[in-house]
User: What shape does this take?
Amino acid sequence: MTAVPRPISATRLPGLAVLLILASAAVMAVLVLMPLFVVFEGALSKGTGKYLASIRDPDAVAAMKLTLLVSGIAVPLNAVFGIAAAWCIAKFEFRGKSALLTLIDLPFSMSPVVSGLVWVLLFGAQGWFGTWLIDHDVKIIFATTGLVLATILVTFPFVARELIPLMQDQGADEEAAALTLGAGGFTTFWKITLPNIRWALLYGVLLCNARAMGEFGAVSVVSGHIRGLTTTLPLHVEVLYNDYDFVGAFAAASLLASLGLVTLVLKTGLEWRHSGELSANRRH
Assistant: This one.
């Protein structure tokens, strides 16, 4: 009989455990804490007055409003899509299921620039539908609509990928029992499915929102960089930096960093309070 090797406990190698912890902390300090410090230090380098003036600038305010608008449209739509896709994949067997999973994962392997270019090729002036859109005075590229489409394409896997493993792990027994007892499809979803996935759904929405607000590549392609009109907060940072307005650029970047920190705190809180429900996602 072949002996099964026993896992090595960290307590048996205390020196190695301490070394790995210190190495991890050093790497995180260099890759995360130092850039954050540089951003906030640069934003406040000329005092809080200049910092506040930079974030109150009309173009900065417009960029913040546009970022919130684009995220506010893209994230709920992706949440609806994620729930529907996870429901289909986890609860039913059908031809083309693996193809659907592949399509859901496609944005993870596709460059954000390509994700934006797709919409230019479809709806740009020289695109497939460009002539028709111009004739009917419909503007998608260099407009908010294009920013929303680009953001949706880049971020739509996040919610679905958080829900699929959990719903597969839960199975369909509760839904089947509810339907057998006479509950309708909507009642079953509202009373059984949604409560079971609510924390994983919120977790996926947080990740989706963080990516949507910080997206640069895809929205850069379709925005046209029209200041005050089509520049989201990440694009506003680039515009200011290229104009050598470093305080303004770092001030705008500090807002994005703050959004990221808030997302991290909420994400950590969810993982801590609802680790049992979210752990299914980590096992797949």
The chain has a mean pLDDT of 85. Residues 58-91 form the longest helix (34 residues).
